């Protein structure tokens, strides 16, 4: 493993280096996991965790129009408390006239530190569209965070297939979902910070993956609310228009590299996947029915790379899944059939039945004043021959899996997404997305920022991340090939420890 520490003065030269670098980050403080709910029971998910400390004006059991919280309760080595905030749905309207949304947050602190005055942390979860993990014990980076801070996580529930069925049209869904990007996440965070932090002081933000994108939006439009920022695998492209095209062009190279690494580790899977692709292609309709009512096709099978190729233990999970593709032959002459467990595992792996927001909103996170127009689908056409699963299987080449990409055909083949097809198309063609970043403000940034940049990150391309980092004043980088995109989760306390050390003087600048 090669590691490089990058002060701002070395940023330009780093952009031209081809060496691996190591990164780490983590969070501290009482945090709250935010889930938004319309009072009419529709829901909006913030996918972030907000730090909460003692010192707010509210008290347990005290009920106001803006903030209600309950009593402390316990999981092993942690104390937890639940909060709910009433925040505006649409910040472009007067705060009193906008519809209100309820934000749920879970406060977490080490046992015995409930009454101590500790710093605040805002934890921004990856996604978009996936909830924070529920805390069950003090371990990993959460344990490290709770040594010094109050941290929160827990009940961030994304928009669901059933809750969005309350809308009567695709226009209503698209109009609702346009409020679910980084700009409103920052607005919500600022709303809560002003009501929680004593004297409305600044707090620290930890942004993982898409949460890092949100943190850079925070640096752009509300730096006065930030004490310091920690980024883990989450430095976004910040150009005008829609940057998704450049992102996917850069990412395909890394996706092919990850495929190569996977098949070198599990060469026996080459023939297994080829056989499965050929079986699916030869079926009437080009695939087999899934338990939910969708269809598994060769191109659908390739989407297993989204989770399998880019995170710690992903290779192993993918390989073990392929160990049980076929039903055993119990009766001589019985036709070959895919195992139900495999089909069920495939659907659970994707998670679109429980987290449809990821598929519907994914490309919009790259849009500023321009539509995405199904960017991944268009860019993949430029290298389509490399990802033609049926051709690869028939010619004896390894079948390549795809990465963090959403394609329009998914809304035909994945049962949970079918009802959102028209809304997804409307969002893909939407042109008037508001700005997410201010490059001039980022250039003159004065907030201390430390970032873990993963050299072999399949989701947030290294080159793209470095281009943006060169535009953020004062940022310090820890670039590494020791971790993949899931380093915050996989590295225990190491990532958080290292990034905090970079900002508190424990790690030398040079």
Automatic annotation (TrEMBL):
Record flagged with keyword Hydrolase: yes
Transcription regulation keyword on record: no
UniProt entry keywords in alphabetical sequence: Hydrolase
Domain (AB hydrolase-1) ranges: 151-274
One example GO MF annotation: hydrolase activity
Family in the record: Belongs to the peptidase S33 family.
Protein name: Proline iminopeptidase
Species for this entry: Senna tora
């Amino acid at each position: 493993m090669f590691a490089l520490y990058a002060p701002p003065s070395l940023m330009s030269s780093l952009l031209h280096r081809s060496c691996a670098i190591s990164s780490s980050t983590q969070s501290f403080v009482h945090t709250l996991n935010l889930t938004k709910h319309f009072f009419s029971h529709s829901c909006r998910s913030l996918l972030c965790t907000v730090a909460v400390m003692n010192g707010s004006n509210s008290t347990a059991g005290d009920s106001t129009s803006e903030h209600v919280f309950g009593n402390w309760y316990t999981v092993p080595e942690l104390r937890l408390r639940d909060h709910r905030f009433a925040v505006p749905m649409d910040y472009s309207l007067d705060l009193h006239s906008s519809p209100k949304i309820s934000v749920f947050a879970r406060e977490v602190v080490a046992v015995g530190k409930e009454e101590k005055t500790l710093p605040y942390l805002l934890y921004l979860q990856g996604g978009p569209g996936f909830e924070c993990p529920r805390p069950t014990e003090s371990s990993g980076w959460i344990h490290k965070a709770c040594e010094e801070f109050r941290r929160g996580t827990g009940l961030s529930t994304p928009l669901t297939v059933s809750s969005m069925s309350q809308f009567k049209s695709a226009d209503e869904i698209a109009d609702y979902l346009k409020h679910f990007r980084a700009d409103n996440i920052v607005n919500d965070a600022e709303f809560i910070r002003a009501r929680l932090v004593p004297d409305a002081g600044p707090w620290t933000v930890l942004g993982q993956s898409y949460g890092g994108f949100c943190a850079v939006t925070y640096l752009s439009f509300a730096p006065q609310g930030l004490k310091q920022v920690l980024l883990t695998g989450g430095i976004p492209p910040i150009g005008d228009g829609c940057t998704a095209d450049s992102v996917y062009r850069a990412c395909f190279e890394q996706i092919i590299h990850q495929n190569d690494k996977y098949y070198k580790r599990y060469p026996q899977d080459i023939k297994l996947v080829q056989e499965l692709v050929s079986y699916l292609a030869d079926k009437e309709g080009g695939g087999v029915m899934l338990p939910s009512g969708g269809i598994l096709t060769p191109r659908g099978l390739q989407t297993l790379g989204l989770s399998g190729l880019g995170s710690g233990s992903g290779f192993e999970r993918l390989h073990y899944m392929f160990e049980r593709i076929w039903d055993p032959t119990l009766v001589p002459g019985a036709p070959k059939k895919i195992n139900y467990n495999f089909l069920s595992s495939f659907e659970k792996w994707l998670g679109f039945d429980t987290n449809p927001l990821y598929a519907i909103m994914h490309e919009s996170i790259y849009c500023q004043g321009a539509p995405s127009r199904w960017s991944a689908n268009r860019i993949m056409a430029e290298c389509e021959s490399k990802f033609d699963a049926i051709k690869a299987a028939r010619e004896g080449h390894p079948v390549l899996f795809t990465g963090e990409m959403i394609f329009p055909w998914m809304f035909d083949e994945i049962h949970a997404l079918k009802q959102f097809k028209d809304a997804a198309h409307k969002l893909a063609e939407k042109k008037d997305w508001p700005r997410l970043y201010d490059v001039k403000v980022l250039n003159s940034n004065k907030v201390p920022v430390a970032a873990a940049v993963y050299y072999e990150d399949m989701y947030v391309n290294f080159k793209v991340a470095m281009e943006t980092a060169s535009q953020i004043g004062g940022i310090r980088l820890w670039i590494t090939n020791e971790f993949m995109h899931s380093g915050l989760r996989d590295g225990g306390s190491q990532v958080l420890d290292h990034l905090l050390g970079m900002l508190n003087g424990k790690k030398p600048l040079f």
